[in-house]
Design goal:
Elements: H1 2-23, E1 40-41, H2 43-52, E2 56-62, H3 67-74, H4 80-89, E3 90-96, E4 103-105, E5 108-110, H5 123-128, E6 137-141, E7 147-152, H6 157-168, H7 177-183
Parallel strand pairs: 1-3, 2-3
Antiparallel strand pairs: 2-6, 4-5, 6-7
Length: 190
Amino acid sequence: MKSFISLIVSFILITAVAAPVLAQPAKQPASPAPYAKIQWIDMKELADLNAKKPKKIFVDMYTNWCGWCKKMDQSTFINPVIVDYMNKNYYAVKFNAERKDEVEFKGKKYVNANPSGGRSSHQLAQLMLNNRMSYPSFIFLDENMDMITVVPGYRKAPEFEAIMHYIGENAYKSKTWEDFRAAFKGSAKE
């Protein structure tokens, strides 16, 4: 009987000691490191950087009230494939099309002619978008800051990846968009 009681006491003690350890949730795998971010710069930085090391330029023309602009920020512009290619091949500029301050671009100063007006667009936004004020719009400039093209509207990462490569690889100089897109094999996922 003593051995039976000893066995029961031992079982209770082992259970009491082991229970907290066994009750712990399984160790979760480490969270993946956050994606790198697009290295956004402003127009002043653009002029300085491009003078030292010319690269193609990407301008994200947005407004604070634009829902699709925010969706681009929350999906396409955080995709690691997009971030990596953008940072390696472009100077990326975020430009609020309704900003109120003066901006210099290619030696000329631009302003918002009606800074106190609601939804009044900046002169540089008007110039870059050829007065087609649609948001989001994406402006691609060459290394001399000359216009290549404007791409309006929200784009999911796979389509945006193809657009970035089409411009970044200078394919736009020798191929139609349709031919390039049909042959392009990207790696960005939605």
